[in-house]
Each structure stands twice: as C-alpha cells, then as structure tokens.
Amino acid sequence: MDNILSNIKGRFAVVIPAYNHDHKIRDVVEETLKLGMPVIVVDDGSIDSTFERISTIDGILVLRHQTNQGKGAAIMTGFAEAVKVADWAITIDADGQHHPADAIGLIKAIPEGRRPIVVGTRQNMQNTSAPWTSRFGRSFSNFWVWVSGGPLITDSQSGFRIYPLPEVMGLDVRAKRFQFEVEVLVRAKRRHIDVIEAPVSVIYNDGSQRISHFRPFVDFLRNFRTFSLLITQRICSAGTKPQRLKQ
C-alpha cells in the first residue's frame, strides 16, 4: 500500500468474515496480504477445512467462533480487534468475488477530513454470471434501505466496504447475519455518518464454483423483519418530533 496515502487517510486493517469457504479463502487472504495492512480473518464456526487452510498463513490474525453466529457477528468480532490497531476497517468477502487490490480505490474515495462508510459498488453485474439472487437482492435491498430512511445507493449488499472505527461500533446494529450490512447503512445515516460509493470489480465467471450461504426464503424473512423494524422506528421517530407552534 502507498505509505503516503496511508498517512493521509489513517490506519487501515482488513477484516475477512469466513464461513465454509475453504475453496477460496487462502487465495483471498494471500491477495489481501499484498496490501501491506493488518489482516484479521474471522472463522465463523466453519465445519469444512476453512480454519486449516488459513491457520498456516503467516502475517494474519485468525479469530474463531466455535459455532456459526452470522456474518454480522463475525464482522463485529473483527472490528473489536481491528480498532486496537486501526482507524478504519476494510471488509472483504471470503468467496473470491472481489479483487482485494480494489481497496486502494476505496481508500482514495474518502474525502479529506471526513469519515464516511465507503461501499464498493460492484460493476457490470448484469453482464456477468452473477446469480439471479444477487442481482434481484441488490435492487430489492437498495429500495428498502432508502424507504427505511437510509442512503439512496446502488449496491447496498456489497460486502467490500470501508468502515470508520469506532463510529460504526456504536451504532447498535441488531442484525447478526447478512442483514447487518443493510441495517448498518440505515443507522449510519441516522447518526449523520456519510455513506458514499466507489466502483469495484466483481468476479463471478472465473470457472470455479462459488459458494453462497444466502438462502432466498429464510433470508427474505430475515430481511423483512429487519426492514420492518427500521421502518417502524422511522415512523415512530417522525411522530415524536416536536411541532413548531403556529404564530
């Protein structure tokens, strides 16, 4: 990583939540190490050989949940460790869909003197072999994030992000699984934390079998519950705002 860029923007650490990604995790970690930042991998109770694949890699910190707690829980576990050494946490999915080198572009997108969440907007998903669940889920999520009072962005489901620490750790995000990544955007806007986007590439057609743990029916219900809570809170908050007295 460019040392000048690091000095201007602050200290960065990478958090990689992983659950049963033994086919890709080692490649992802080794590419991430090339950034020259602290790398924290959170094994979220994997029952395959994920832990064994990364336990012999030098230069990383591996944290491990004994049972699967969810992607959001894994991210927060990583944040609790990252905040000890960094001002910002970069999250990268363990399934190999991202180019870790794109993190430099996300860092460059941070405006001087500001501490936003930076979301890596995946490019050309309609022109790749991205599964329909990813393409439909992105549009569905974008709309409901906005309705819930969150930012109007184009890829609210991207897991490639930069988070300002410790601000996001104080947002009281309740979701522990995939829904963490949409809820945190809504709660950030409510706390006046900016959310901005920057482009990143995406890999879906590299010939390998991509494993997704997104379950359309179960996770739709979880999404519905999360958005229902956020919308209810927004309505209640609007109803309790003091009214200006008429003169």
UniProtKB/TrEMBL annotation:
GO biological process, one term: protein N-linked glycosylation
Record domain Glycosyltransferase 2-like: where: 14-135
Gene3D superfamilies: Spore Coat Polysaccharide Biosynthesis Protein SpsA, Chain A (3.90.550.10)
UniProt xrefs under InterPro entries: Glyco_trans_2-like (IPR001173), Nucleotide-diphossugar_trans (IPR029044)
GO molecular function: transferase activity
Keyword flag Transferase: yes
Keywords attached to this entry: Transferase
Protein name: Glycosyl transferase
Signal peptide region: none
